[in-house]
Amino acid sequence: MSDAAPVQVPGAWGLQFVDHIAMLTPDLDVGSVPYTALGLTPDGPDETVTTQGVRVRAFRLGDTLIELLEPEAGSGLAASLAKRGAGLHHVAFRVASLEAEITRLSALGAVFLNTQPQPGRAGSRVAFLHPKWGAGTLIELVEHA
Fold this sequence. Notes:
It contains three helices and eight strands, in the order E-H-E-E-E-H-E-H-E-E-E. It is of the alpha+beta class. It has an eight-stranded mixed beta sheet.
């Protein structure tokens, strides 16, 4: 994590910055090849997020992570990988207060996949906005302790 304070974007309410960009891959080692070739190294050990049915490997570039997601067999992400193939899965924005953003965005008509925060990588809490609301993009909100 960078020691620099996050920059608040005017008009973005509780958004602080892009927390991570998640890429779906059938295998973390194979999926890591382009990122290691670019000179990135894993940011800590791989982590299993059981509530999401996924193994995660993260690469840090400044304040933003590139997360590789390897689905566990039988998970929703495994079905997504089989249907759509490897590639971009979602974009995640760091927020100061997950509950405040869920409340604010719900009042604006946002459609969430989950309005109750769920455990995420590295002790974070997350909520996902429906891709139809995100103009075809799955959006994740992330709050770190």
